[in-house]
Amino acid sequence: MKALILIFLFILAACDASPKDQVNAVQHEPVATDASVLKQLIFPPTIAAGSQGILRLPPSDTLYNAEAVIPPQCYTKHEGQYNPCMTCHQSYPYRSRPNTMNDSNLQSVYAFSDLGLSNHWQNLFEDRRQKMAEISDQQVIDYLYTDNYSPLIDQLKNTPDWQGPIPEIKNLHRGGAAFDHHGIAKDGSHWVAFNYKPLPSTFWPTNGSTDDVMIRLPAKFRQSSCQNSPESRDAYLANLSILEMAIKDLDQISLPDIDENAVCQDLNADGKFGIIQTLHRPSHYIGGAADEVLSPMLYPLGTEFLHSVRYVGIDKGGAIGLPPHMKELRYMRKYDYYNPNHLVSKYGNEYQEKVEGLLPQFIHRGDQGTDNSFGWMLLGFIENQQGQLRKQSDEEHLFCMGCHTTIGSTIDQTFAFARKVTGAEGWSYIDLVGMPDAPNVDTPNANEGEIAHYLRTVGGGNEFRENDEIRQRFFNADGSLNTTAVQGLDVYQLITPSLRRALDLNKAYMRIVADQDFIHGRDANLKPVTNVHKEIDPETTPVLPGDKAVQWDIRLQWTNEEKIKNTALPLSTK
């Protein structure tokens, strides 16, 4: 069979597989039931070009859910033993990191405002199975192979009154084909893709979405120290690697081959210019950004992220990956820099507001996006009823704020970059095939991977414990984790669904798109959930016992060197 089974990279034309790819094909070939479904599908020879729709919704005078920052997962029933809250709500030694939210107590209590006591995410309880049955498998495939990203970019360029960013990467809808072997966009836009482990469990393909993330640093980070400060690929990769050390608090890191002659700087301080593959953490960035102090766990001013959220793609060989069609396009830009001392005050204010039960307040800045009040501007696009991407409404943007503002586990309000495969190997487009289930740093059991630990702690394949396929694959009849079943599997094998489940997950979300009721929830559940509260009674709703709280770190231990330091970080006051 001619197919290149690389997760999250769709190759539409058949090609000869390399020896490595042939091994992967053997390890990840579709199961028999998937093969029978695959035979009934016709895959388009090319990606269909999508059309444009209305870019902005009319403004609304009503607000359905002012507490949309509380995600649906927060209403999950604990049943006295399951802890789905650990990935968001964490506390660490005081001042050991700029994020001082310290909200691990929220693993054990439902600390909501009066409005938040009612679960507004009504799509969790909708039975859409009949409507899903009206969508054929072939309709799903045709939909997946339609490009709705390029029409959006063209529309933004040609809308005279558009005042926001235009997050363009040529051929981004084609996934990895838009980037070179180091993840750098081929179109000269300076966006860089990186390979990372998806956060448990909303962004696991088995729960309905695939995604990729790209980063871009300001122009001076791409300039060398050479005369006239010319643009340098080597300087850019070096600065990106230095940033990775800062975010993960590493003392050294591996690099793609960096030519110090191209940077005009002795980066490893050995007294000569040459090709280097490792770098110790400096106090400043290099080249044109030499005036920038390295601030632990903070991004420099002007950092941008681009995040595409997509359907669960299927290629002609049956592999699961990123399809051309996007559910959402998310953009973040760091427009202001707050030093750690200032952040302590801001987190303190946020904590007090939560204690007092005040409703969250955010400033919506039109086409620029929504201000998270911590220096980041967030802008999201989502599908309209015809599958075309449009700007999210102000209320739809509130959904993004819950995760990218004040939860204890994030690093500078972000998730993915801290989970990048560390060093040189991680500078490439996302690829889960062959990726080990690396444990989190400072985990009590370093022999248990993060995914296995999550399954055991949560008691299922997602926060709601509603993923029947994961339960059948990896759990015993008594509800305990089947450690033998998860042993030796890579990330692709652990978190990608069967072909049948992938098709059904896509159908479930297509029905949400048709209804255009994102304010009621975006989770592609295949049937009404049962392990979720519709109302929280502060007096009677059971909470999680304190001994079930879990210490967890968003960072991963890819190598033995990646362990948390127990001493406080030397926080910059830049």
Describe the structure in your own words:
There is one protein chain. It contains 14 helices and 14 strands. It has 574 residues and is of the alpha+beta class. Strands 3, 4, 7, 10, 11, 12, 13 and 14 form an eight-stranded antiparallel sheet that branches. A two-stranded parallel ribbon has the order 1-2. It is globular. Residues 1-27 and 564-574 have low confidence and may be disordered.
Rg calculated over all Cα atoms = 23 Å
What's the N-to-C terminus distance? Answer: 57 Å
Q: Number of helical segments? A: 14
Secondary-structure element pattern, one letter each: HHEHHEHEEHEHEEEEEHEEEEHHHHHH
Strand runs, count: 14
Low-confidence stretches: 1-27, 564-574
What would you call the shape?
globular
Alpha-beta content class: alpha+beta
Mean pLDDT: 91
Helix-residue proportion: 10-25%
Please outline the major beta sheet. 8 strands, antiparallel
* Share of β-strand residues: 5-15%
Task: Please name the defining characteristics of this protein.
alpha+beta, 14 strands, eight-stranded antiparallel β-sheet, 11% strand, two-stranded parallel sheet
Q: TL;DR of this structure?
A:
With 574 residues, the chain is an alpha+beta fold. It is 22% helix and 11% strand. It has 14 helices and 14 strands.
